[in-house]
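Suppose you are handed a protein chain with no further information: no name, no annotation, nothing but its sequence. What can you learn? This example shows the usual starting point.
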Amino acid sequence: MSAPPVVSVIMAAYNGAELLPATLASLQRQTFSDFEVIVVDDCSTDATRAVLRDWPDPRVRMIALPANGGPVRARNRAFAEARGRYVAGLDQDDLCLPDRLARQVAYLDANPDTVLVATATEVLDGARLLPSPHVAHTTPALLRWLIRIENPFVWSSVMMRQAAAARLDPFTRPDILYAEDFDLYHRLSAHGAIARIDAPLLAYRRHAGGASQRYETVMLANARRVLAAAYASPFEEQADDAAALVVEHLMHRQPVPDRATLMRLGDHLSRLQQHFLADNALSDADIRMIRWATARRWADVARASLRAGTIALRDALQIRPPHLGLGHAGIEQLLWARLIGRARTLRRRQTLAA
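A reasonable first move is to predict its three-dimensional structure. Written in structure tokens, the prediction is:
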């Protein structure tokens, strides 16, 4: 057998014949060449296996499963076959920029305490390339906080140390379907630092066939399970309620239904943040970033709720936890959101009266 490559790219494939060639071509254009690609086909019914069999790059290896077992089991099989010291995730429809692997390998080589490094991403929506909704600038400390209130990574941008990931059993959990990557980041962060290269080195393809669009309900329910487990220490019996609010309003970006819910969300965020800051040795710069990022997310919820007309402006101002501030939303933006909310409420009343 040939010497192991530095990187193993792992991929679960199912009925991806239309988009898979572009994904594989993006790997061929990598400036870093010492890698293998392990694609586990989960019993596709289209031409996926033919695409993989005929692909001209010998670094691409297909494993054809005899029966469909779902993406988590397929990805776990790919991980079990990986020979590289670093393992990179990639979905069958996403596109790597040419320097992706090179920059991640260089980062992990230079930072031996880091077990996972992702990259910033852009969103490919049809022919449009859009900026990511994730925070633009990060530090390892900020990311360790953010995984407690959102998923700051795109799976296809992640690279991890094989030795650290191999300590997890299983690699990704089939019972946390469609939030298995979020769960993986939580479990892997117990073994070292997590980081992100803030340059966009991946284009995440958004389309109707994507799992995050088709299985959103299951994904959100399993994200709640992950966070409820993470919140057990600071919240105990309130962990489920805190996780439900964070997933619904911070991760799913839904407005709160009333003032009381916004108050509970603010209280939970304050308690979470206080616990995190007490448990971690952080620089002043990290603390400022964590507070600002949290304030920004609380303000996003407040603005969405004002636009929906479910809270009043005085609610957003009076019950805001003092240290959360307004994030990037000033009073003018809140006023504008409230005006939109009032207009929508008036239209609903007119419709009902007609």
